[in-house]
Amino acid sequence: MNQTIETMLNHRSVRKFKEENLSPEQIQMIVEAAQMASTSSFIQAYSIIGVTDPEKKKKLAKLAGGQDYVSESGHFFVFCADLYRHSLIGKWENADVDDSIMSMEKFMVSVIDASLAAQNAAVAAESMGLGICYIGGLRNNLPEVSELLETPEHVIPLFGLTVGVPDQKTAVKPRMPFQSIYHENSYRHQKDTVKQEMNEYNEAISAYYHERTAGKRSDKWTEQMAKMLQRKSRMYMKEFVEGKNFAKK
Amino acid sequence: MNQTIETMLNHRSVRKFKEENLSPEQIQMIVEAAQMASTSSFIQAYSIIGVTDPEKKKKLAKLAGGQDYVSESGHFFVFCADLYRHSLIGKWENADVDDSIMSMEKFMVSVIDASLAAQNAAVAAESMGLGICYIGGLRNNLPEVSELLETPEHVIPLFGLTVGVPDQKTAVKPRMPFQSIYHENSYRHQKDTVKQEMNEYNEAISAYYHERTAGKRSDKWTEQMAKMLQRKSRMYMKEFVEGKNFAKK
């Protein structure tokens, strides 16, 4: 196994960091690695905002649901779906790009582009010995986040990535078994098969929590998911996304 | 610079492969690396379909716009946004998860999850000396792709990833300058600044094509983008996505 794959297999989210800012060189290297991810038809439909202003970081930490490790980390990146430049290009090149830019297809392209870039950033950071945590909590309140970061129309902050020198040791969380995530030639959708696989996975997850908490927790994965999905969270999203002129057509 | 970052900075899409299938061990390692990417609230809202059936591969190559390197590669992966399991969990756990599953928020979560996993797969493959190319062309015709792969409701094939032993040497394509993609504390949306940056980038891209084609091409990036976005491609996507019960609420 090579170092790159070893880095990936050792991934765990880090939520406690030493008081040590990333250097400008580290930030630049992480962003350059992000930029080299594949991009659909070379569209590069994303932007990255690095937040260094202490006040803004505190506000973002609060908006993300009181996650201190947003402000108390070495650096905080925000990844955005971004077709703003492309909307301007339409005007400059005298091309009617409105339908494209407002299409569900290009919304997906920009979310995918931003995510591929972000994962390169995450793995690059981890390969440098840093720890990371994605901050989906930014989506709790995108109107305020957008105002704070002054993102224009055609730009949506999707998630944050908090990066720094780890100050905790966390465990690698066992993923779904290979045969549950990986299908060959056609999707195995038989409900009995899925149920049996999920039961087996439940046992693995229960055992993981049991061991990690000295018997205090033994959640099953399906229970966790049911509980989470019962909460109707961020139901403003469709209106917000369409209000930013994404996924309207 | 470490090996992982070196691998990323050396990324270029490969579209011609040697006739050499990936081994089961290689496939498993790539999928396991993919699975270790971060996932929103541990939801793991994606699936990977490996296509090995030669007939299916040919059909997919055709559906993707006649891209032979889909069928003529070492392996072809399809990454799907997937909330099918979660819809079943709702029934098994007697939890009302319908609003969540049909929300724009969870659509974004599943597209992001699938993309983070895919980028780990891509980098893992490249770290093993393999070449890769993302196949967004699958989205040309998702109804037929879904039928071919037998994906149920709540599952959307997002893109393919073709992987194999490279049989061509391609050049690294210069990305947008660091200062154009990276903002500090707030988004720089001043049109004049963006225009000036894009003009500079146009020169870099023109020079790149000029050198690579011995003077035959000298496209500017903004021209490429305007031309691409003028085509109203895949405008069926919103109806298709909502028809699969994603992004409806």
From TrEMBL, chains A, B:
<feature type="domain" description="Nitroreductase">
    <location>
        <begin position="10"/>
        <end position="164"/>
    </location>
</feature>
<dbReference type="Pfam" id="PF00881">
    <property type="entry name" value="Nitroreductase"/>
</dbReference>
<keyword id="KW-0285">Flavoprotein</keyword>
<keyword id="KW-0560">Oxidoreductase</keyword>
<protein>
    <submittedName>
        <fullName>FMN reductase</fullName>
    </submittedName>
</protein>
<dbReference type="InterPro" id="IPR016446">
    <property type="entry name" value="Flavin_OxRdtase_Frp"/>
</dbReference>
<dbReference type="InterPro" id="IPR029479">
    <property type="entry name" value="Nitroreductase"/>
</dbReference>
<dbReference type="GO" id="GO:0016491">
    <property type="term" value="F:oxidoreductase activity"/>
</dbReference>
<keyword id="KW-0521">NADP</keyword>
<comment type="similarity">
    <text>Belongs to the flavin oxidoreductase frp family.</text>
</comment>
<keyword id="KW-0288">FMN</keyword>
<dbReference type="InterPro" id="IPR000415">
    <property type="entry name" value="Nitroreductase-like"/>
</dbReference>
